[in-house]
Amino acid sequence: MSSRSNETQKLLQHWRESVPNDRLAHLIRDVGRAQMRALQLRLSAHGVSFGHWTFLRILWIKDGLTQKELSDLAGVMEPTTFSAVKAMEGMGLIERRQMSGNRKNMHVFLTVSGRALEKDLVPLAEEVNRISVEGISEASIAELRSTLLTMIENLVKAEAQAMLADAGTSDAV
């Protein structure tokens, strides 16, 4: 058994035996981590890291973004994006270009090789998604999706309320 598979097995055992009623946030995080490990295992056969996958997915949808736009969409800091873009450029997956009239911003474009990976890598992610819901009915999957979206909506509302309360507090000072 590989160490990654062993990690996932330990995670399952932990949830079933040690903390079956722990907070939902921890369970959601661990499901995400297990899915990332499963995908990384498949991506590595193509020489792509999970971090690079994140940027490739964004560029497959919208090519030619600035590094800042790429950072924002990936939800990571600009130095992280810079390092990943530099590595991906070295791998021949992307190229950076300045656009005419704007010498400040570097735009990131997929190369032919980077674009071609989409047909190989997207099915790997789809496979991981299929595996993760095996044995779960379509109705349960739809209910789970709805529940998770409602949780996000609740958190968006709570975040907005907290920001308003914080703004009111800082105005009073």
Net shape: globular
Portion of residues in beta strands equals 5-15%
Class from secondary-structure proportions = mainly alpha
Q: Could you tell me the radius of gyration in angstroms? A: 20 Å
Low-confidence stretches: none
**SSE series:** HHHEHHEEHH
CATH architecture term of the largest domain: Orthogonal Bundle
Number of helices: 7
CATH class of the largest domain: Mainly Alpha
State the strand order across the main sheet. 1-3-2
CATH homologous superfamily heading of the largest domain: Winged helix-like DNA-binding domain superfamily/Winged helix DNA-binding domain
| DSSP strand count | 3
Domains (count): 3
Helix content: over 70%
Measured distance between first and last alpha carbons: 59 Å
The major pleated sheet works out as: 3 strands, antiparallel
Roughly what is the average pLDDT, rounded to an integer? 89
Summarize the structure.
With 173 residues, the protein is mainly α.
Mind explaining what this structure looks like?
The chain has 173 residues and is mostly helical. It contains seven helices and three strands, in the order αααβααββαα. It folds into three domains: 1-45; 50-131, Winged helix-like DNA-binding domain superfamily/Winged helix DNA-binding domain (Arc Repressor Mutant, subunit A, Orthogonal Bundle); 138-173. Helices cover 73% and strands 10% of the residues. It has a three-stranded antiparallel sheet with strand order 1-3-2. β2 and β3 form a beta hairpin. α3 (50-61) packs across α6. The N and C termini lie far apart (59 Å). The mean pLDDT is 89.
